[in-house]
Structure formats: C-alpha cells, structure tokens
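Our preliminary data section would be incomplete without showing what the modeling component actually yields. Below, a chain of 480 amino acids is followed by its predicted structure, encoded as tokens that our downstream tools consume directly.
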Amino acid sequence: MYLEQLVDISTMEDLNMECKARLNRNDIVGWIKTVAGFANAEGGSLFIGVEDKTNKLIGFSRKDADNERNYFNNQVNEHVFPRPVSRVSFIRYEKNGRELYVIRVDVKESVVKPIIVKFNNVPSIYMRRDGFTNGATYEEIIQMSIKSGNTQFDVLESDEPYVREEFTGLLAFYEEHNDGAKLTDKALMSLGFFSSDYKLKNGAILFRDGYQDSKAEVQCSVFSGFNKGSERIVTVNRFKGSLISSIGYMMEFVKQRMNHTFVKLATSRVTIDAFPERALFEGVVNAVAHRDYFLDGTQIQVDMFKNRLEISSPGSFYQGEKMGKTYDLSRVISKRRNELVCGILVKCNVMEAAGTGFDKIVQEYSDADEGHKPYIYSTSDHFTLVLPDLTYAEGIAMEEGPAVEFVPVQNGTDHDEKVLSFCYNGARKASEIAEYLEMSDSSYFRKKVLENLVEHGYLEKEKVAGASYFKTNRDMVGLV
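Predicted structure:
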C-alpha cells in the first residue's frame, strides 16, 4: 500500500511534505531539522511510517506508534526553540488483517522566527526550500527576523472560545485584590483577553481554571546548604496549573517552610520572617509576568537555601542586555515581554502599571545590612531575583560556589578551581572574584588567572555597562 491510498497527497507540494520510515535515533538532526525548516518556511507535513521517495507504507502497531510519537515530542521539546505549533495525528489502515498506523505531523509556519535547532549546545537555523531542508542563508535569517516582528506569545490569538465560567480563579483573585469588585467581560475585552469573536488570546488561556500545560509549570526546591552542586536536596515539588494557582502555590511553598525569629523590644517582641511577604509576593508576580512563554521545557524555579531564596524565570531580563549582579533594584526598568499577562496582573492590582515593582522589595529590606540586601542578575536564558534570609545572621555577601570538576587548564594556577566554582551559578566581576580569593585586583591576577581561563574556554567573558563579567562555561566544567 502507498500513502496516496490514505491521504490525498496530490494537493501537497513536495516542498511541504516529507516521509520517514522511522525516526533515526542515531541522526536526530537529520529529521528534526525538517520540523524546524517547515516552521521557518510555509509549514508542511511529515509522515512517519512511510518509505521516502516511494511513499510505500511501513506502518506501526498502535503501541509502537505511541512510542514513536512520544519520542518525536520529547526530541522536539529538547532541541527546537521555540517549539513550533504542530499537530500530531494517527492514520489507521489494515494490511493482511492487521491494524497499522502512520503518524502525521502537520507543522504550521511559525509566527515567531527563526526557529532554532540546538544540538550538543550548537544552535542551527534551517530553511525548507525546493523539497529539501538545508541551513538558512544569511539573507533568509534576516528576512525571518523582520517578518517575525518580535511578536509576543501572549497576544497571539488561539482557536479556544472564551467561557466566563472557566475563569473562576482569576475572577476571585481580582475580587480579593480590589475590595470585592467584579471583573467584567467588557474590561477583559478592553485588555485584549479575547477577540471580537470571543476567541481567547494565548495569554488568557494561561489564566484558565485547570490549565495543565508546561508553560505555567513551576518547580520549588529546598536545599540543606548554600548551593545546588554539593548540598542535599530536602524537597523538590513540581506544580502545573493556571498562573493564578501557580502564584498561590509558590507563595504557600515558601511561607510554610521559611524560618521565623523574634526581636525583643522594650515592651514587646516582634516576629521577623525570613522573607518579607510583600517582597516575596512581588518577586513571584514578577517571575510570572516576565517569563518567556515561548520557551518550552522550562519552568519558574523557586530555590530555598540556608541563607537565601532564589526565584528564577525563563528568559533573560527583557531590556535588551544581560545584567550582572546588581543591588540597585529600584532603578531597574524592564520592557514588557508579555503585554496581556502584565495587563491582567496590573488590572488585578498586584503589579505596577510601570516598572517592575522592585522598589517595594527594596523598601522591605531597607533596614537590612549589606549582607542582607536583595539583588538580581540575568543570563541569556533566565533572570533571577535573590532574597536574603533575614533570620540568617551571616547574610549572603560572599556565598560559596558548588564543587566542580574539569580537565586541568594549560598554564593554569592554583586558583582555577575556586574561580570556576565561584562563577558557576552567576556572572561575577573581576573585583568580586579577587575579593573572594583574597587577592588584589591586579593586572597579574586578570591576565594570569582570569584571561588564561577565558583563552582556553573555561570562562566566558562579556561586558555589561562598561564592566567585565566572567561566568563559568558549563560545557567545559561539570559538577562533582
């Protein structure tokens, strides 16, 4: 039997269709680039279980078809960014009295381009043209970027209808923070929550009761010590739900596990929480508001350590550049990555109409010493807010890094291991590294220690606002 006996392929052009007998486990890029190429071009259909060129049906049993579909989804989630919109379906047929299936994957042209394949930490961009998938040219990449126009995930229209009864969590959240007032359909429409024909926007779906997709997933962890690399994990909890329920879950997770202490006054005593509730709430809401919802296979992470709380959100801080560690939170201004999500949170009175709300966090920590000041930093794939534990007397002015392992560096020094450990979880300035090593920030230190590690690929160096920051290259350095 042949594919044309199951599907009318006469309406399909060769450039929009490809067949694979099986997904090659030894050459993942060989087939996954087709998915990315379709998304970067005009879309297309991939048939799995069909012999290439001849269109002869090979087929799968139902069990094998399920396994092949799961393998496809897992590999696309891991290697294609952002994941393109696609639909996977089974086509049933019979041969010699046996029930068999062909897998059909319909890939839509992506609104956001370019779609990138990342394999072995090497990013590649592919384009489908003339029935073949090859690397995109420079001109094609430029055109893809222009057409993409920096479209935001949350304002794209979906096929899902708006049903008010499916948003009880959002409606109750609004009432709670607006003195019992009701959130009207008219207000939601003015925010762009749904279109004129009542089709929900992507961002609106994130607020729907019972939402279970990974785009709103959070992971909350408690570590026994000061870092992830060498300390015992006490608790790891994952949660999937709407953005409203995710905010509530993160708040409760921290509040139930954080420390408390008392300060005696002349006539009374005052309870001090490890993390002020207002600062915690601002941090959680900020992570939800500014995360990159195009990034599949990621989640907001809330990590509790002995001396601090870290709230990390997927996607770099959205202001056009990476940020090294900074304590001056009140001056940090972020361009909105998610207009609809932010608009809803502003409407619910839990987020500032302008700015990040970090000034409220600064106020909550205004009486703290230098070792207990909150800070943020941003890398290419996430941004992190760090709240010091006010009940931990020593603070976090100079936290230790994880235990690392690496091939000895050519012309290396006795300081290499400590430097790579210290820079493993965040970018550091040369002066911070020198202080940590109890050395002077001299030209010798920079050249013989830092620049040597950079030259051999163990440290990554970049300039932010005129200052040089160094971060460990995790492809060269692992955790013990």
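The domain at 3-150 is CATH 3.30.950 (Methyltransferase, Cobalt-precorrin-4 Transmethylase; Domain 2). The chain has 13 helices and 24 strands. Preliminary results of this kind motivate Aim 1 of the renewal.
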